[in-house]
Amino acid sequence: SQELEQSPQSLIVQEGKNLTINCTSSKTLYGLYWYKQKYGEGLIFLMMLQKGGEEKSHEKITAKLDEKKQQSSLHITASQPSHAGIYLCGADDPTSGTYKYIFGTGTRLKVLA
Amino acid sequence: EPEVTQTPSHQVTQMGQEVILRCVPISNHLYFYWYRQILGQKVEFLVSFYNNEISEKSEIFDDQFSVERPDGSNFTLKIRSTKLEDSAMYFCASIELAGGPRYFGPGTRLTVL
User: What's the CATH class of domain A4-112?
Assistant: First the structure.
């Protein structure tokens, strides 16, 4: 079955610094989603990527999917305390007949003011 | 903006009691899912439901769990005899079409004492 690994597991940055979170799949991705979660709360949808080489931005967050569609990165520019939380990547499991979704291991981000 | 809703937001129960978690998916969606996240851990797939039957389930989804769509709008997850280790956040999700954007509910936090 497909696995999604995220790196780093946790990240502490000073406010204003840029950072990158990676999500690597063991198989080709057919739709990669990024979510943000506050500890113990719900999932906030950030972006969806489907095509190899695709890049999307929203405010200071940019997500890319590589050409081979096995790795995605999430880049935050000039981080702010409001960016703190857990970032999760998710993808459709292509081995599933019901479009079961799998999630990455998560990256916990802390932004120091 | 359509949304998936879940009730209750927080449920506290005694070990051995039955609980029913409720979800209202988006009205024209066809595939429905339950996921679980033990605090601080990965979001895990439990079960998918399509055409009024379970189409896929994980190892976690044992005989203590059941799902129903009793009236064409609600989608419920029942845990017959709760255990301490069932304490987690439970998320419902739905999609309209295969491979379409996945909408998650805000989650129900289940605490088993």
Answer: mainly beta
